[in-house]
Write a sequence for this structure.
């Protein structure tokens, strides 16, 4: 969370709901799915009342809110499911550190969702909040982009485990999708690193340095939001047994393994970026050394010529060579300068300076 975002909340009492992200004007969309073993109902909410808890205890109701800038909608949805005021406060307060909170009637998870726009190759990230209880799952994302359409597509198929798995399985599915997207983004970053490495071997440029630092910032952001996620998954597996079925243990262990793999990849890429920076600095230093060597060679060749020209350019009548050489003085002097220059060039070539 930036300092400007924090300033918006200074002096307010705990539980005050304030949106701290970038200003958004798009309409908030609420996707709702009612899931059970035998049926599935899907629709977009026309009013907040559509978000109310299911009457049938065998139905898992998934309410997905796309946009948290309208804090009134966020508050009303959360109060239907009796979420704690401090949890409601965290949802529109973007920039939260990944964490898991176990409340008497629900579990709250917050993490960062990453996506890559294939058309422009730009990395996009936003905060995702998930709350689930006995028969409901609430999910919130900052933007109107639909992060979870692939999950709904799976739920539309009869016999899908998402229908029969319950709210804990649905929450796991959401977490697993977000972590899987980390791999997609990291694969793209890996391709960029390989491209820069190939270019770096040929020639180092200032533009390349800017690209390296951009990737370094992206990886730093990844690391900041991945490391706490390990504790989130462990805590969900260890301490949330009243909300998580014991059979979910194998799925959560697999999710934890994915998080560890993402962490390892991020650390590997960070080491690669550090190595690329060293290569860049070495390349620039070598280039500068080559330039200085050329300038040194040129200067060394012209120093004796400058000395000769300065001596015989003085207007003293009694310089002996003027009378001795006579009319042949000029060509002889030029020839002497050429001989000195060629001698120095051959010497530098012999010692591999040129």
């Amino acid at each position: 969370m930036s300092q400007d975002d924090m300033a918006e909340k200074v002096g307010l009492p705990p539980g005050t709901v304030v949106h701290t992200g970038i200003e958004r004007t798009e309409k908030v969309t609420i996707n709702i799915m009612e899931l059970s073993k035998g049926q599935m109902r899907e629709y977009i909410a026309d009013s907040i009342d559509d978000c109310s808890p299911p009457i049938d205890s065998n139905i898992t109701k998934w309410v997905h809110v796309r946009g948290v800038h309208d804090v009134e909608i966020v508050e009303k949805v959360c109060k239907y499911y009796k979420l704690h005021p401090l949890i409601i406060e965290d949802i529109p307060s973007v920039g939260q550190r990944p964490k898991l909170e176990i409340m008497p009637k629900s579990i709250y998870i917050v993490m960062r969702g990453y996506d890559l726009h294939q058309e422009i190759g730009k990395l996009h990230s936003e905060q995702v909040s998930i709350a689930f209880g006995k028969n409901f799952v609430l999910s919130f994302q900052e933007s109107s982009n639909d992060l979870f359409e692939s999950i709904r597509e799976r739920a539309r198929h009869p016999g899908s485990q998402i229908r029969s798995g319950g709210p804990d399985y649905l929450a796991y599915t959401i977490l697993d999708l977000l972590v899987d997207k980390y791999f997609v983004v990291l694969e793209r970053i890996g391709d960029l690193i390989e491209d820069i490495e190939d270019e770096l071997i040929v020639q180092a440029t200032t533009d390349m340095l800017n690209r390296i630092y951009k990737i370094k910032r992206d990886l730093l952001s990844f690391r900041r939001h991945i490391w706490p996620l390990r504790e989130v998954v462990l805590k969900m597996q260890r301490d949330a047994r009243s909300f998580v079925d014991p059979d979910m243990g194998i799925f959560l262990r697999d999710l934890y393994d994915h998080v560890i793999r993402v962490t390892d990849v991020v650390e590997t890429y960070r080491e690669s970026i550090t190595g690329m920076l060293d290569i860049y600095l070495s390349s620039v230093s070598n280039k500068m050394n080559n330039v200085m060597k050329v300038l040194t060679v040129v200067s060394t060749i012209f120093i004796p010529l400058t000395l000769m020209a300065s001596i015989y350019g003085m207007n003293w009548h009694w310089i002996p060579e003027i009378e001795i050489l006579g009319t042949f003085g000029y060509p002889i002097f030029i020839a002497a300068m050429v001989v000195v220059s060629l001698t120095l060039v051959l010497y530098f070539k012999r010692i591999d300076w040129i």
